[in-house]
Amino acid sequence: MKKTLLALAITAVAVAPVSASTAISGGIWFNHELIEGNDVQESTLGSTNSEALILYIDHQQEDSAWQVSSEWRAGSGSFSDPLNNNTGDFSGFHKLWVGYNFSKDRKLVIGKSSVPFGFGTTNFWPGDMGLGGFGDQMDVGVKFSDKQDAISYDLAWFVSDDFGAKSTDTQDDNSHWGSSNTYRKVNTAVANISYDLSASQTVGISYQQGELQDLTSESSDSDPLFGEHNAFDLWYTGTFGNIGVKAQVMSTQRDGLDSLDLNPTRELDDSTGLTVVTNTPNNFQDEIKTIRQSLTVSYAAGPFSYYIDYTAASTDTEENGASDLVAFAPGVSYNYGPGWIYAEYLTQTNFIGRNGDVTEGDFSAMYLTVDYYF
């Protein structure tokens, strides 16, 4: 039987001596959405969903440079996919790492931590659409970070997206890195370097390159590594009084997906009693290439923050005639003390699929989200 989040929290409190260097906290969030063009939601004024309970445990070893940081989420709002994660339900670690601090700025981290590649939008959801798997990555591996004067850099090696042999779920990547019965990214090297132009402006360059693992075959005799992926990002962040600006341009590529042996796979969905197709015939191209852009402008006024996230993506893949993805996500957040309230609108043309390419389809929705931390 899987341990529930409540049981984990009780166990952690019971066995961990709480001191000034230990922080155990939690949080909840839930969301109300109204999807345009959805007759059911429009007739009922939307639905309240994406609920989650979160447990945070952070510990700095006294008189030592060692520390640990973790975040466990449970609930449909964990942004985890039961079909493609390591737990088989709506729960999992968003992050779980052990770190060693050589100095204030120099650190080594082992475990599941953030991938040092560009940056995410103001709110990873719903504003991250055009970044599709690159905006808020949390992968498993080792990372070294340091800062020398105005220069900061990160060097990392990530063995996989998540814990487990087949998980492709980083919780916030919105299903853009394959699936547990197609492929996932592995053995990924990442380098990130930035330069502080001033106390409030920074420019940076990020690069990552790795391999792709075939998850379609159960045979242990064949080589599971079949392809490669790489991405390059040029980014900028700046603050001018109450105004914040973030911009980036990114190129992405995945090679070899056409070699996957994908045949339709049908499974019974226990929740509905219906047979669903969980794997579709392979229409992936040999080289999948995209160019993506992101721009965020924000304005802070006391407890309020007003912002608009713009993301876009165009395909450079042969035989993909999809038009450009263009997404706007204006919103406002209010810090009411123990958490935030977000009111946001998302409108977009097209999507980023599991193969990392642009695919056709439009979407618009209103969101009202509440966070509370304790």
Which spans of ≥5 residues are poorly predicted at pLDDT below 50? 1-20
Helix content: under 10%
As a whole number of angstroms, the C-alpha radius of gyration is 21 Å
Second CATH tier, the architecture = Beta Barrel
Strand adjacency order, main sheet: 1-2-3-4-5-6-7-8-9-10-11-14-15-16-17-18
Count structural domains: 1
Write the layout of secondary structure elements.
Elements: H1 5-15, E1 22-35, H2 39-44, E2 47-60, E3 66-74, E4 91-101, E5 107-114, H3 124-127, E6 138-148, E7 151-160, E8 183-198, E9 201-214, E10 225-240, E11 243-255, E12 265-269, E13 274-279, E14 287-301, E15 304-315, E16 325-335, E17 340-352, E18 358-373
Antiparallel strand pairs: 1-2, 1-18, 2-3, 3-4, 4-5, 5-6, 6-7, 7-8, 8-9, 9-10, 10-11, 11-14, 12-13, 14-15, 15-16, 16-17, 17-18
Q: What would you say this structure looks like, in words?
A:
By secondary structure, the chain is mainly beta. The chain has one domain: Porin (Beta Barrel), CATH 2.40.160.10. It has three helices and 18 strands. The chain has helices spanning 5-15, 39-44, 124-127; strands at residues 22-35, 47-60, 66-74, 91-101, 107-114, 138-148, 151-160, 183-198, 201-214, 225-240, 243-255, 265-269, 274-279, 287-301, 304-315, 325-335, 340-352, 358-373. The strands form two sheets. The chain has a 16-stranded antiparallel barrel with strand order 1-2-3-4-5-6-7-8-9-10-11-14-15-16-17-18. Strands 12-13 form a two-stranded antiparallel sheet. Strand 6 and strand 7 form a beta hairpin. It is globular, with a radius of gyration of 21 Å. The two termini are 28 Å apart. Residues 1-20 have low confidence and may be disordered.
